[in-house]
Amino acid sequence: MIDMSEDIVKKLASGELKLHQADEHSTSRREAVDMRREAVSMLTGADLSNIGKYSYDPEVATRKNIENAIGAVQIPLGIAGPITIHGDYAKGDFYLPLATTEGALVASVNRGCSVCRAAGGVTVAVMQDEMTRAPVVKAKDLKEAKRLADAVKTPEMFAEMRAVVGTTTRHGELLRVDPYVVGRSVFLRMAFDTKDAMGMNMVTIASDKVMRELEKKFDVKLVALSSNMCTDKKPAAINVIEGRGRTTVAEVIVPREVVLERLKAAPEDMCDVNYRKNFLGSARAVSFGFNAQVANVIAAMYIACGQDPAHVVEGSNAITSAEMDGDDLHFSVSFPSLPMGTVGGGTGLATQSECLNLLGVKGGGTPPGSNARKLAEIVASAGLAGELSLLGALASQDLAKAHAKYGR
Description:
3-hydroxy-3-methylglutaryl-coenzyme A Reductase, Chain A, domain 2; alpha+beta; Alpha-Beta Plaits; 3 domains; globular; 11 strands
């Protein structure tokens, strides 16, 4: 063990000292970071040695994660929680790894976690699980475009397409194909079950094989394997409506006294802020994000857990709802599109692997897909905690004070 006070570490792990109080009981910020990390490791049983070294293995990263590598850009990693989650896959208390350079974010999420625990925990569920890829073809004419669009909706053609997909992957499965015709262009939005993988590589390879077979059966030419109807890493109403990745909803019912004590605001005021900011303000701005700061939390957890940070675009398509439940606050956040996975991509890097292990979701789950859904439930719960805290700060008029304290 590194040179640090074992007594302070034990107090941090037991809860006798809050994690942020490590700074008050250390001789330097570096020692505080070391003690805090050791306490979290003791609490969770997770090995966090690579996070302490700020390292990645070039032998691993340069094979599939980065080209022209010259080193690493480091992002501070904070911890929030624990947060109590009642999901179909995530059950119990979780500490949330958040990689960010924005002061006040971790503190805000941490406060939201505290509120959620005091309220008995977050209920969360994955409503839909699918990854999409949408090739576009140019048909000979409108008649041929309609023939293709009609054909992919038949059981016979769909079965053929599923069989082709099966030759490209042992894990992926074609769920459905939705055709869209514009002139003589045909867009085929294919939805796949990608199990524990985020799945973009998987569905791209499978879609390519399918399209090559369709070119043999119809008078069409593949123009682009990705047509922007997917829609990947861009704002799009289709992702809000149809979903993409792990569609997840989280909710918590916060007793009135907890809202007043922990958030220093009345539940009615939080409902009013949510209505005027997240609903009216977003509608006036014609925003796809009817929320306060979901992108903040999605980005911080995606970076920490080896996800593609660009998918924060889809992840920020969330709707925050606040309404009275008697005297209490019913608070929920709905995430139509949360692309993520626990295998592939950046999940194999050392520090990211440790964050996934911290959450108990590293690698493939049993049954397949369960780890990725568990991660989705955790990320959605973290997003809810962030929303709860920020709306509380707005309702209590404390936002500027918090940023002055933590953000400068």
